[in-house]
Amino acid sequence: MTGAQAVLESLKREGVDVVFGLPGGVLLPLYDAIYQSDIRHILVRHEQGAAHMADGYARATGKVGVCIATSGPGATNLVTGIANAYMDSVPMVAITGQVNTWLIGKDAFQEADITGITLPITKHNYLLRSAKDITRVFREAFFIARTGRPGPVLIDLPRDVTVDEVEFTWPEVELSGYRPSFKAHEMQIKKAAKALMEAERPVIYVGGGVKYARAERELFDLAVKISAPVTTTLMGVGCFPEDHPLSLGMLGMHGTKYANYAIQESDLILAIGARFDDRVTGKIASFAPRAKIVHIDVDPAEVGKNVRVDIPVVGDAKNAMQGLLKEIKAKGRSDWNDKTDGWKKDYPLRYIPDMNIIKPQYVIEKLCEIAPDAIITTEVGQNQMWAAQFFVHKDPQKFISSGGLGTMGYGFPAAIGAKIGRPECDVIDVAGDGSFLMNSQELATAVVNEIAVKVAVLNNGCLGMVRQWQELFFEKRYSATILGRTSPDFVKLAEAYGAVGLRATKPSEVEPVIRAAMAVDRPVIMDFIVSPAEKVSPMVPAGATLSEILELEWCDADQHCHLEKIYAQGRKEILGQEGF
Amino acid sequence: MSQKMTGAQAVLESLKREGVDVVFGLPGGG
Question: A-chain residues within 8 Å CB-CB of B8?
Fold first, then answer.
């Protein structure tokens, strides 16, 4: 068969049923093979959309997502999507076309050194030089993408390699230099169990690693067995049911007050599949000052990267927790649980409701009420934080967000990918008017393929998160963040693409608009005209300790004074000096 | 001639001295 046919046969054997891509000159032979294959191909309108769709598909299904782009600009348009998958450990295989092998390095038409460009943002990448390597490389790529700490693998495919004839074989994977850790060391498990038993104020801090290990059950059993409160990162949202009494919700910069207080007061943190990101820890020198830290992670490079770890446990989260469950004895409720419960009662997530203007948080609450089992994807910024805070999450495959890279324009194509992977689920992209426009061209993809995703645009007329920082730390100098009503009419935009557009301008219209959108089996954009001044709260200002978390809308005079001090501190951190 | 300013101000001053009169961009977080 031809190289192109060998690629398709390899994809089939790896269980791929859908690929997201856009053709181009050097991909003509591959696309000719796609035309004759039964693998579903979703034609995107921009390659960044293909990468995010493959990413959303992977996060919603646990399978490896596949995207395809042509050489040169096609390949470079994938870069943001690959970096996004790399930061959030998403299993993905990206296939790029490349110029003929004899033209590589000659500045040929549409040539880009994509293996060089993506070296720091892929788990591994390949430049194929011969058709006989195709099957081995594809097997290895899928193996590397899905094992250990998952991540994106790129295969660069020169045109002539896809044309050459090759004998199809399906070799076993033999990678002598790649041995992903799986089984946690027994002695470390015992040490971790002993520390857990001795702790009086434990907190379990959960990241995306629990989701990728499909270890939610073990996490639940572990937390309940020792009555330990659980907080999650943005990537870990949904790993532990947020309506459970032991749930502390999300921690960090825009986490709950009670999660941050619990972390700061704890005497033991059991970190599982999390990486102590700067948005989580706040000021690192004063992070959890009295806590012993146990860190379970499949990637040994994460241990000790950001914080000092007392007991490292390198291995798969599910395997390690199964080991822990055997070693620990049940522990009932303690004073610590009373304390965290008290914080939950005293400092709930809240906002000031309004009868006349739509509060963005209210939209999220209504979405949760009407579609509690929907897959929620997000863009990045305020919309993302409100979606994390005000929707009650219970399933990690149903909250899909760009955590590490923070890619605006991610949520909509990710929603399309998620819906293709899980067609039985409602899928809603929570968006902003700024971020939605960054990949709105994929409306065409959704309409032509009848992918009935719903978009809730929280339309506040500004780049809200940056505007929020400018309000707090830059004396309201709104440099380049006010969009006003210069965005397109989103209802007309939807209609122009053949989708459905709905608008709500006052609170009483929110529920009817959501119900109407959910009732339609077509792509819908809901345009919610929301309060432009609303800020994401609470907030740990840059450079502050987690316990210095503040509610931005609820300050009394005393707290306001404190707030001013914190802002000054924030300005100092950001600008490296006092004020301006 | 020297003057105390922030790095950001120094960037803007440099652009000005290079004769730049327009830039194209989009802001981001902190």
Answer: 575
Residue of B nearest to A474 (CA): B30
State yes or no: pLDDT of A45 exceeds 80: yes
CB pairs A-B closer than 8 Å? 23
How far is Cα A260 from Cα A2, in angstroms, rounded to an integer? 57
Q: One-letter amino acid identity for A213? A: A
pLDDT digits (tens, 9 = 90+) for A259-299: 999 999 999 999 999 999 999 999 999 999 999 999 999 99
Q: Which token pair is A398?
A: 């149903």
Report the pLDDT averaged over residues A505-521: 98
Q: Using an 8 Å Cβ cutoff, are A302 and A309 in contact? A: no
State whether residue A21 is helix, strand or coil: strand
* Region at A62 (left for phi over 0; alpha for psi -120 to 50; beta for the rest): left
Residue A155, pLDDT > 90, answer: yes
- Which region, left, alpha or beta, applies to residue A277 given φ > 0 means left and ψ of -120 to 50 means alpha? beta
Over residues A38-64, mean pLDDT: 98
Query: A4-15: per-residue pLDDT in tens?
Result: 999 999 999 999
The three state secondary structure string of A264-288 is: HHCCEEEEECCCCCHHHHCCHHHCC
Q: What is the rounded CA–CA span in Å between residue A62 and residue A229? A: 27
Interface membership of A480 toward B (CB under 8 Å) = yes
Measured CA to CA, the distance from residue A192 to residue A309 in angstroms comes to 12
Q: Which residues pair with A98 in a beta bridge?
A: A158
- If you write DSSP's letter for every residue of A155-192 in order, what string do you get? EEEEHHHHHSB-----PPP--TT-----SPPHHHHHHH
Mean pLDDT of chain B: 93
> Looking at the DSSP assignment, which residues form a beta bridge with residue A156?
A96, A127
- Full DSSP string of A75-115: HHHHHHHHHHHHHTT--EEEEEEE--GGGTTTT-TT---HH
User: Structure pTM?
Assistant: 0.95
Residue A17 burial by Cβ neighbours in a 10 Å radius (0-12, 13-18, 19+): middle
In degrees, rounded to 5, the angle at the alpha carbon of residue A151 between the alpha carbons of residues A150 and A152 is 145
Q: CA A436 to CA A380: how far, in whole Å?
A: 10
Long-range contacts of A5-8 (CB under 8 A, 24+ apart): A5/A33, A5/A168, A6/A131, A6/A134, A6/A135, A6/A166, A6/A168, A7/A33, A7/A95, A7/A134, A7/A138, A7/A157, A7/A162, A8/A33, A8/A34, A8/A37, A8/A39
- What is the rounded CA–CA span in Å between residue A335 and residue A319? 30
The tokens for A544 are 């502050």
pLDDT of A579 higher than 50: no
Q: The tokens of A172 are what?
A: 């076993």
Peptide bond into A538 cis (omega under 30): yes
Which of B7, B8, B29 has the CB atom closest to A466's CB atom?
Answer: B29
pLDDT digits (tens, 9 = 90+) for A199-252: 999 999 999 999 999 999 999 999 999 999 999 999 999 999 999 999 999 999
**CA R_g for chain B:** 11
Q: What distance in Å separates residue A263's CA from the closest CA in chain B?
A: 23
Which residues are A96's β-sheet partners? Answer: A69, A156
**Element (DSSP H or E) covering residue A526:** strand A524-529
Q: How many CA atoms are closer than 13 Å to the CA of A574, on its beta-carbon side?
A: 18
Would you call B29 and A473 a contact, using CB atoms and an 8 Å cutoff? no
Rounded to two decimals, the ipTM of the complex is 0.87
